[in-house]
């Protein structure tokens, strides 16, 4: 999945002319998502990711870090753009 994240970062950098701040945010959030999938759910790649896995991750963020709805919406948006 890490390679796909870097391909995606290259895409938003070149094609979408994303700002350095946006690139940093996307990379950090997607890497955190990847780590959660690998450590907590045992999912090494993209092929097995289902909607329930994404919901589990968002629930984890809300419960563990007390993110507000607007912060979770930003994270959802990043994941949607990635897929």
Structure characterization notes:
The chain is mainly α and 83 residues long. It has one domain (2-82): DNA polymerase, domain 1, CATH 1.10.150. The protein has helices at residues 2-14, 20-41, 51-65, 69-82. Helix 1 packs antiparallel against helix 2 and helix 2 packs across helix 4 (69-82). The radius of gyration is 13 Å and the shape is globular.
Attribute tags:
83 residues, mainly alpha, DNA polymerase, domain 1, 4 helices, globular, Core-binding (CB) domain-containing protein, CB
- Percent range of helical residues: over 70%
- Quaternary assembly: single chain
Write the H/E string, N to C: HHHH
Structural class comes to mainly alpha
Specify the overall morphology. globular
Q: Radius of gyration in whole Å, from Cα? A: 13 Å
**Averaging pLDDT over every residue, what do you get?**
92
- Give unreliable regions as ranges: none
DSSP summary: helix tally: 4
Query: What is the name of the CATH architecture?
Result: Orthogonal Bundle
Sheet with the most strands, sense and barrel status: none
The first-level CATH class is given as: Mainly Alpha
Strand coverage percent:
under 5%
Q: CATH topology, which one? A: DNA polymerase, domain 1
Number of domains: 1
Distance between the termini: 12 Å
Based on DSSP secondary structure assignment, what is the total number of beta strands? 0
InterPro entries: CB, Integrase_recombinase_N, Integrase_SAM-like_N
Protein name: Core-binding (CB) domain-containing protein
GO molecular function: DNA binding
Organism: marine sediment metagenome
